[in-house]
Amino acid sequence: SSLFRVFKKTSGNGHISLYLGKRDFVDYIDSVEVVDGVVKVDPSGLNGRKVFVYLACVFRYGCEDLDVIGLSFRRDIWIQHVQVYPPTGESTTKSPLQESLLNKVGEQGFPFAFQMPTNLPCSVALQPLPNNSGKACGVEFEVKGYVANAPLSTDEVIDKKDTCRLMIRKIQFASPHSKPGPKTDMSKQFVMTDKPLHLDVSLEKETYYHGDPITVKVKINNETTKVVKKIKVSVEQLVNVVLYSSDTYTKTICSEEFGETINANSTFEKSFQITPLLSNNKEKWGLAVDGQLKHEDTHLASTTLSQGEKEIQGILVSYKVKVTLVVPGKG
Known about the structure:
- By secondary structure, this protein is mostly beta strands.
- The protein has 1 helix and 18 strands.
- One of its GO terms (biological process) is G protein-coupled receptor internalization.
């Protein structure tokens, strides 16, 4: 009996079938889980052609319905092709998943495996406008089996009936060992006052999971003659789209105002809680969400984690907590 759940896609003409044991692959920052599976091949339908599989990390610009104009609405960030049939004779050790799939499929099964590099973005989609049913723009990963004479021939047209594909996701692993939270401080000098208003802000940890409340610790030393009437706490999502050039978009995903009075020449210390949730941002076009398979519920996109100064293409996501003190009056 197999312990694996199996995902299967068969080509339109039934000559090849793609099998995977899972659709979520974890990025541990210094390595990514291997994408491995099996292709079942019926050689009688190949007419001497070969069977290849590719894994592609794709930036998709939106609707495919516009492909009639011959414009390409996808850009391959990374793509790797392997030949599965006829087997190339390279002996590789098979994973337990592949052994299990090969037992299931029989002698028509041929294994394949891909090791992604560590500088690829994770699966992320940009939220389309409400009631836009088209394909979201974003970074996707696809595994595709196809029958062809060569893995990459510009003049060879591959019939859709000779292909089968499964979408997978690369998801970011967040270490449970959270580092201490970030801290920042600033002073503001007002005209006509010689002493400053000093603000310290800190978070209790660095990593937050989906749905976690964020506790923002605020310390104020008001040495001025002015009164602080309100404290605004907000969280922003910064989305950096790195393709031909680099564009950054900033969207506020939650913001709360707290009516706190901090009188002249006084100090104040308090923690505020704020919880960013996708459910409160369903109308925001272009917000980054974790890459979806079909239309199951998702979350706000995970922060892109990377090692050192690796150049990552695609969509990079980060978050910023902002604290604003509201001081009425001139100056």
